[in-house]
Amino acid sequence: MKTKITLVAILIVFCSCNNVKEKEEENTFVEQEAQVLEAKKESVAQLKENLTNDGYQIFDYVDEKTGDTVLMQQYFIAFLKRGANRSQNKKEADSLQKLHLAHLGSMYEKGFADISGPFGDDGDIRGITIYNVPTQKMADSLANMDPMVKAGRLAIEIHPWWAAKGFSLR
Questions:
Q1: Are the C-beta atoms of residues 77 and 158 closer than 8 Å to each other?
Q2: Which residues contact residue 26 at a Cβ distance below 8 angstroms, ignoring those fewer than 6 apart?
Q3: pLDDT for 77-94, tens place per residue?
């Protein structure tokens, strides 16, 4: 009987030690999570400061569902519309298309444009580019440097557009 009581006592002590260890691990995890959240808040604050200093229009709000701060930034969406001069022959049009794609690629590589693409129909609006620049004047200037626009094959219409910073397409 003494042996059974001793074994039960040892088992209770062993289990309570494991519980203490689990609670310590849980507390460590909670502390690490709090540090990550604090670092994220600091990075949002730093991002806001950097964007504001660079002349971007921004605002933020707290997502009620997640408690996260969502940073909204003003971008500029350029609608590339059918231009007045579409009289180029196929060879000229193909050459302009290559130059157009090179221009858009350059805008992306330099960080001025985040996304570009054509529409899938044959309407007057041929495609879009979303410019990640601080002013509409800058977006307009960059969009009008496009060889297709210079040739009159496309025309530009630009509008301010707000989107959450860091969100991606799905």
A1: yes
A2: none
A3: 999 999 999 999 999 999
